[in-house]
Amino acid sequence: MSKVVGVILAGGSGLRFGTEKPKQFMEIGGRTIIEYTIDVFERHHGIDEIAIVTREDYTQFVQHLIERNSWDKTKKVLAGGKERYHSSLAAIQAYSDDDLLIFHDAVRPLISLRILDDCIKALEKYNAVDVAVKTVDTIIQVDENECISAVPPRPMLRNGQTPQCFRCSTIKHAYEIALRDPSFKTTDDCGVVFKYLPEEPVFVVPGEYSNVKLTNQEDITIIEHYLSVFKN
Prior knowledge:
Elements: E1 4-10, E2 27-28, E3 31-32, H1 33-43, E4 49-54, H2 59-69, E5 74-79, H3 84-94, E6 100-105, H4 113-122, E7 128-134, E8 141-142, E9 148-150, E10 158-160, E11 164-167, H5 168-178, H6 189-196, E12 203-206, H7 218-231
Parallel strand pairs: 1-4, 1-6, 4-5, 7-12
Antiparallel strand pairs: 2-3, 6-11, 7-10, 7-11, 8-9
């Protein structure tokens, strides 16, 4: 039988964040960021299994977190690679074609159960699902001289978040084509489906502005605030 698998992507190095320890393993309120993230997936009734993809030198630490939290659904700890898509590929190769994979950044600990609800429901109809919020700022495109070359209409623009969700066979097929492209570059999995499987619609589930990604030092304060609000 097919499974709904939460794939927690925790392979980042943290170099751009400016800390020795990868940011997914930083602590807030006595717990690491990734622990808050996994807790949401563990609590969700529609998630059958969880896989964590992390750096090879942190696999033992992740195993320790699993034991410390007694997570029942977290079954696999996989080693990622140098690029983000290597982590996605590690999970794709670990599951069967009919499984439904919900890729989520470990550094987005504020994901809601509602977003997961909507993603799982959308996967009943679509083979690829993204999560995004409406863009609140005007987006400009610039040319090589740093001058404005276009101003896309804001009502049609979205800021992408995670999860990004797929039937395993779909994202596997997209990567099989992509990896044959000598100029292949990507920053997200939905972009791979969009480019290499253009006939496959990618449905967009509404995200939430609170689904913050820990990117800059300033984000720590925001996440601390939301965690205190959710806790209370």
